[in-house]
TrEMBL record:
It comes from the Archaea. Residues 16-36, 54-77, 518-542 are annotated as: Disordered. This is Trehalose-6-phosphate synthase. Residues 525-535 have a biased composition (Acidic residues). One of its GO terms (molecular function) is trehalose-phosphatase activity. One of its GO terms (biological process) is trehalose biosynthetic process. SUPFAM superfamilies: UDP-Glycosyltransferase/glycogen phosphorylase. Residues 18-28 have a biased composition (Basic and acidic residues).
Amino acid sequence: MRFPDERLSLTNPYSRQLRCDGRGRTSDDASDEAACPGPLIVVSNRQPYRHEYDDADAEDDTERSVTVDEPTGGLTAGLDPVCKRTDGTWIAWGDGSADFDVTDDRNCVSVPPDSEGYTLHRLDLSEAAVDSYYRGFSNRVLWPICHGFSDLLEDRPTDFEWYRTVNERFASAVADHATDDSVVWIQDYHFALAPRLVRDSIPPSATVAQFWHIPWPAPETFRDCPAGVDVLEGVLGNDLLGFHVDRYVENFLECVQRYVPNATVDRDQRLVRYEGEPTTVVATPMGVDAASFDRRARAADRRNPSALLTDAVSEETVVGLGVDRLDYTKGIPERLAALERFFERNPDWCGEFTFVQKATPSRTEIPTYERYGEFVRNEVERINGRFESGDWKPIVYTEEYVEPDDLCALYRQADVMIVSPIIDGMNLVAQEYLAASVDCDGALLLSDRTGAYERLGSHALGIDPTDTDAFARRIAESLSMPRHERRRRMNTLRHRVFENDIGSWMDSQFDWIQSIHEGSSSEAIDQDPDTDPDSPEYTPRV
Ligand code: ADP
Ligand code: F6P
């Protein structure tokens, strides 16, 4: 197993007790976070834990050992702590080679491994289903459309029908678990049709909510979405629909207004009525488990620095860092172009500054992604070939798995973090970096096209990832920024990340769900209690 027990307990800073009725928190709980008003059922495509056989050559399964890993991505990283706090059931696609050898006869397993946890219900999807639903309609249609890459849209013949079939399967799994007061919390664009199917198959007193983790595009872009009206009608099956930022809420409401003529849209109340049923639409930006990143980063101090760094750079080297899935939305080639320009214009930094890019291959069966990965690797090689000298390389690139503790060590050691998506619904990596910057001496370069920019943009160094010259100047600026200025910015940024962490996001979700449960959805809830810290150095209570 990759994760020791210590890691599992560290990610859960809250005390919790299990109850046999599936409601995680009890009246004995000391914490004052908002509680889920009923037994929670989370639905997502990606599962939080994957069981894999790690010895493909063994004769039979009994000889093979099973490892458990946590798939890379903001959604699972964010929601696992939520589920640990609330208990309940998580329904997801089981894509690991050993997944169904560790589940019971209902395809359920308790996670996290080796600790008392919540129930993971895995769905076994055929290769044809996965190819069309996940690699097809989800990631060749909705992903590019929602991120404004209409030119990458591929509308293959059977993808949408499979997407519907898989949404039906998830909806039926939800119905198996749902009770009168269940809260069904559906995640992301893989399930645009499921909310209506779920709504029609569970008791009316149960609540159906969805969080859309990626952007929602303007109507002019959404117009190109195949089966766009089905998508909108499906999503309007929710009682509550959440996005990260106001802009996506506005875009969604405009799309409904334009493409679902039978719906009534109240832009002020952010309320849609369709077929007599209301959907409340809210902007609730997601945060990270800041206390856990802070703690792990502090612990990293007592250990050796990240092996990745000790192997690649000397102690004096100034370190820049990028951590991303290899996805065309993440702006990695643009970042490399800016780094190349930076070294061209600032030769004195050659030998002094190294950029570490930690990349994770993603959706590689889709040729666009495969080509993207290849392009990134080639660019790194080319730029390194151009500037490297002796033992020094401008870019250290790795696709190797990095343990969470090591990732925190890397975050802590990075003098500059570069987050440069062309577009990103939120971007949790930026927030993780800030939470782990316990020495308050790092700087964040942040694309102004991320959801995270809305909250962090005033104190990060904003960049337009496509403006190579200005981007390169920003890198230079970050490296020469006086220490007190880094500290000043970092304090405020850390404060914002801690004040708006995953716990507060979850509270806002459950506050909304509760108000909808009670039929008072129009009540306003303060969603952005940003205030700058008074203290000269922000140290969270952890
Ligand atoms: P996305 O959801 O598009 O992948 P986010 O930045 O919101 O992007 O979330 C990414 C999550 O996955 C973060 O929790 C981050 O720590 C993790 N992650 C991303 N890339 C890597 C990587 N190369 N190595 C380890 N973890 C990664
Ligand atoms: O956050 C957006 C998202 O698509 C998540 O839904 C997903 O878990 C993550 O990115 C990683 O992508 P994938 O699950 O396709 O590997």
